[in-house]
Amino acid sequence: MKFTDDQIADIGEEIISVLKTVYDPEIPVDIYELGLIYDVQISDDADVKIIMTLTTPNCPVAETLPQEVKDKVGEVEHVNSVDLELTFEPSWNKDMMSEEAKFELGML
């Protein structure tokens, strides 16, 4: 089934809502506000590709966090498949956090 642009936009919003329920265990801010999600691409078949990073390559949740993201996004209504790519280019830094995340962490 092909989805319209509006439907894709709705699926995208739903995916972002779900991403905001995933937290880095060491920082009390969700991974979306932290800037760990570099890109979310949704095809008109609702195949989703997520490009994300971790705060460090040796992050204690390097194994489990991407899987949690994949599982949760896979549960979003109409999502057909989820392809998750983990990258460390560019490497994450504090400037990638949203203003809200910086505020939460007392950096503003």
Automatic annotation (TrEMBL):
<dbReference type="InterPro" id="IPR052339">
    <property type="entry name" value="Fe-S_Maturation_MIP18"/>
</dbReference>
<dbReference type="InterPro" id="IPR014291">
    <property type="entry name" value="SUF_FeS_clus_asmbl-assoc"/>
</dbReference>
<dbReference type="Pfam" id="PF01883">
    <property type="entry name" value="FeS_assembly_P"/>
</dbReference>
<dbReference type="InterPro" id="IPR002744">
    <property type="entry name" value="MIP18-like"/>
</dbReference>
<feature type="domain" description="MIP18 family-like">
    <location>
        <begin position="13"/>
        <end position="83"/>
    </location>
</feature>
<protein>
    <submittedName>
        <fullName>SUF system Fe-S cluster assembly protein</fullName>
    </submittedName>
</protein>
<dbReference type="InterPro" id="IPR034904">
    <property type="entry name" value="FSCA_dom_sf"/>
</dbReference>
